[in-house]
Amino acid sequence: MASYQSLDIKRRSASTSTPPTVRSTGLEVAKLIDVSKCIGCKACQSACLEWNNLKEEVGVNTGVYDNPHDLTPNSWTLMRFSEWDNPDNGNFEWLIRKDGCMHCADPGCLKACPSPGAIVQYTNGIVDFVSENCIGCAYCVKGCPFNIPRISQVDRKAYKCTLCSDRVSVGMGPACAKACPTAAIMFGTKEDMKDQAAQRIVDLKSRGFANAGLYDPQGVGGTHVMYVLHHLDKPEIYAGLPKDPQISPLVSAWKGGAKLLALGAIAFAAVGAFFHHTIVGPNRVTDTDEANAADLAEEANGAEPTPETRTL
Amino acid sequence: MTNAWGDIKHADLVVVMGGNAAEAHPCGFKWVVEAKAHRGAKLIVVDPRFTRTASVADFYCPIRPGSDIAFLGGVINYLLSNDKIQKDYVKAYTNATFLVKPEFGWSEGLFTGYNEEKRDYDRSSWDYQMDEQGFARVDETMTDPRSVFQLMKQHFAIYTPELVERVCGSPRDKFLKVCEMISECSSPTKTMTSMYALGWTQHSKGAQNIRGMAMVQLLLGNIGVRGGGMNALRGHSNIQGLTDLGLLSNMLPGYLNLPTEKEKDFGTYMSTRGFKPLRPGQTSFWQNYKKFFVSFQKSMWGDRATAENDWAYDWLPKLDVTYDVLRTFELMNQGKVTGYFCQGFNPLMTFPNRGKITAGLAKLKWLVTMDPLDTETSRFWENHGEFNDVKTADIQTEVFQLPTSCFAEDEGSIVNSGRWLQWHNAAVSPPAEARSDVFIMAGLHLRLKELYLKEGGAFPDPIVNLRWPYAQPEEPSAEELAKEMNGQALSDVFDPTDPTKVLVQKGKQVDTFAQLRDDGSTASFCWIYAGCFTEAGNQTSRRDTYDPGDTGLAPRWAWAWPVNRRILYNRASSDVSGKPWDESRKLVWWSGERWTGYDVPDYGPTVKPEQAVGPFIMNPEGVARLFTRGMMRDGPFPSHYEPFESPVANVINPKIRGNPAARIFKADLEALGSPDQFPYVGTSYRLTEHFHQWTKHVWVNAALQPEFFVEISEELAKEKGIEKGGWVRVWSNRGSLKAKAVVTKRIKPLMVDGRPVHVVGIPQHWGFIGKTKKGHNPNSLTPFVGDANIETPEYKAFLVNIEPTSAPAVA
């Protein structure tokens, strides 16, 4: 899984090998979410759950239309509803944004991921998680400037929108775009989507939205999920869409200087351990430790095996 | 719909009022989005709440629930007093020029002829002045004070922007902006479409709400044209088919009427259905009524319906009163109903005043439910704590729950809002013991027939003589039924102009209702469906996207009634001389020899323009009615009436409560609440995440909108100490419910008659069965009163109170 060749992988987390270069990389794809055409019907959420066979829990109402209340390991996309009084003209606006992975050209999650091949970026721009390589460390969550990945409490894996890489790989668009009744979600090459957005922006400007524009933030190298916004100057009014998203400096530090330091520390520990082994001899498990472990195993007996009990 | 879904893309202005298309009809709403994106159309939303439709609108104007006629009256007044009407259209294609009887009048909120005791009108004065030949008198100049045009001007003059603001709570500047945008469509080259749904029908004056907008559309010249029309978005798949097939208690298929007790014989019945033209040389299509009626009777009773027995007229039930759902449950409460068949609906969670519904069901001897889903009605006797607090031991009703197949489990046609009959195949087999409704009904019929044949009875004739020509009598196929609705020749049908020419051979399917006869030679169950399943096959299963002129009408996709016509009254898309009003949006025009175009002309195909036959050929006047004569119980013009429960008195006449011509039963009148106890306006509606109470059975939908809530403004929440997401109790004079509170900026208090009016929005998707959290429905609160003409209950405006509370005992 996640080998470079068969899947047109451009980048792979925590890997130093160079991707193949002789294959034609093909076109970059993008999903365009036209917020001005979105009616907040949640057909995209429904399609995502159905296509990906996800089962979201039946929750409660907390006084808003957003359900579930946040992205979860089972809900990879979510309509976020924001009520906003426009101070310029006194108009009330109900801004509805479909939240989910932005598929950054420069993905913070992939950069932060310490597990080789757990996060990959395909040549078409899709950023995908490869579950069997995921160690559940949640560094991707920290690395994401949009706060998208969620860690499952069931299997300790990270989950997020795949941009329906399975569908796209066989020439279909994402399930959410297919289900969208008003074509507020469009899918195609990134260039085509930019052209489409340009037309929409002309229309929106003619309707008085002087700051209408395309959200394709350059701080992350541009994204493969883009928004047409009526108010590009204020993306934060759309349920906190970041104005200038950047990969956290901690990730750069971690993957840059800190990584070197850490590698040094690991090397030091290894050398220390070698000397400890040769001088003191191997660590032995005491009888008490063995007994405790046996008790724990018994307690866990009959319960659903969790990753923790399995490692016992 | 007069028009079609795909036609909405040709509109310059879309007005969504009395509906919430984006939320309740998200798939059809794509055409509005299309009109905006590619035609530059503007969208106006007028609604008590800032809805999801409003979220993509160019302009939003708030309105108090139940005040739509005042608003629309204001629009009509604006158009008339600013001369923003399409005059040539109004003059030639409406009854604006017709003269009305001198006795007709209106004062202090009432038309002439009102009888307070009967809550009804003597409508004899609501008519035209007739000349010696029986034709209506007209004044082409429209200046005669008795002309409909002048009477209309006078009637709507009181609806000033000041009055609109005072009654509707719509800010004056916003109302005027709406008027200005609408008035631009009085140009022959600009059209507006009206999209409405249950936000207009579910009022005690629902039909008049729609009339109000129909008048606006006629004044603008927007009926019969592309991108225009009065477009009713049907609230339930296949509710259009239901009305077409006459499933209302007083109707027969194809909008024929069930006889009343007064119409004791066929002659009497037909005597008021002559539809004699009211203008010289006018086509009056309903003159064919007898052909359609006799063909229906032949479809029902075949050879047993003969000229001698007046086509079995006596076998039809005769109505003493109409048996709408409100009356039926009233009778149930009076203990006058023994058994009840509840097929494909869920009255316990939908019909008004739930307490009365429960009490009624509990008085039945037996109840049969036929539904693909486990409905609350089937379990009305089961205690679910606060969600269905009944004493099971006291209920003796025997319930038979018959599971049926759902739309995806059987084949057949479904009629969409645009009157298109679209065939679908079964995707899967029904689960377990579920059987089709047809199987169940056929089984009932065959067993009853057998009993009647064996044991006799008071009046077995209609049942034992029923025509039953199906290959498998116990389960007629969808194809057989569709063919029967279309109709066939029972003997050779000849050309009336050439009696030697056979038009349809005996045993063949008819091609159109023009081939139906009143001599017993044809049978057709639903004349408007004639043409849907001909000798050329099943027209409703056609799937050709051929669309000349990019009209969005796709004439070879499925089949639309009547005669595959996609836009009704389409002759009106051209001027009197037959030239399109708008060349870029032409539809049907005069070629010099015949009417031609992109749609099937709604007109005699070779009737020359100079013959001056009016384009509204279903009316004996030949023109559209701005003044409806005596055809509606509550007035020939819409007039503002408050809902039966209103926070304010009627400003026109404070003594009038509700619609003065609407029926209300005594106990229900007494159960109305007053604004001092119930100061807030409740209104009910759907959410896009759910479809009625069906989708609460589906896990995905349940996750997307899991729990019952009500919506209130930030101001009301503050006043009452209600927290966002907290529990509230909402109660009316009839019932009480608990819900979560959605506190929102999307609902704002409205200034009505000088004081703020708060709206409490109550969605209608929850119950005590299904995957969602258990919840209530607005019908716990709603008043038991309906529209004056068709008895659609007043779900959209009633009085409630609200307070913070604790969670229900059983959650």
Automatic annotation (TrEMBL), chain A:
Ligand binding ([4Fe-4S] cluster 3): C101, C104, C109, C144
Q: List positions binding [4Fe-4S] cluster 1.
A: C38, C41, C44, C180
**One annotated GO molecular function:** metal ion binding
The superkingdom listed in its UniProt entry is Bacteria
- Gene3D superfamilies from the xrefs? 3.30.70.20, Single helix bin
Annotated SUPFAM superfamilies: 4Fe-4S ferredoxins, Iron-sulfur subunit of formate dehydrogenase N, transmembrane anchor
**What residues does [4Fe-4S] cluster 2 bind to?**
C48, C161, C164, C176
Per the record, its GO cellular-component terms are: plasma membrane
| The keyword Transport is assigned to this record | yes
- Fetch the CDD domains from UniProt: FDH-N
What InterPro entries does the entry give? 4Fe4S_Fe-S-bd (IPR017896), 4Fe4S_Fe_S_CS (IPR017900), FDH_Electron_Transfer_Unit (IPR051555), Formate_DH_bsu_Proteobacteria (IPR006470), Formate_DH_C_sf (IPR038384), Formate_DH_Fe-S_su (IPR014603), Formate_DH_TM (IPR015246)
Which keywords label this protein?
4Fe-4S, Cell membrane, Electron transport, Iron, Iron-sulfur, Membrane, Metal-binding, Repeat, Transmembrane, Transport
Localized where? Cell membrane
The keyword Nucleotide-binding belongs to this UniProt entry's keyword annotation: no
Task: Tell me which Pfam families the record gives.
Answer: Fer4_11, Form-deh_trans
Q: One GO biological process from the UniProt record?
A: formate oxidation
Q: Where does [4Fe-4S] cluster 4 bind?
A: C113, C134, C137, C140
The cross-references to PANTHER family, in alphabetical order and at most eight, read: FORMATE DEHYDROGENASE, NITRATE-INDUCIBLE, IRON-SULFUR SUBUNIT
Protein's name in the database = Formate dehydrogenase subunit beta
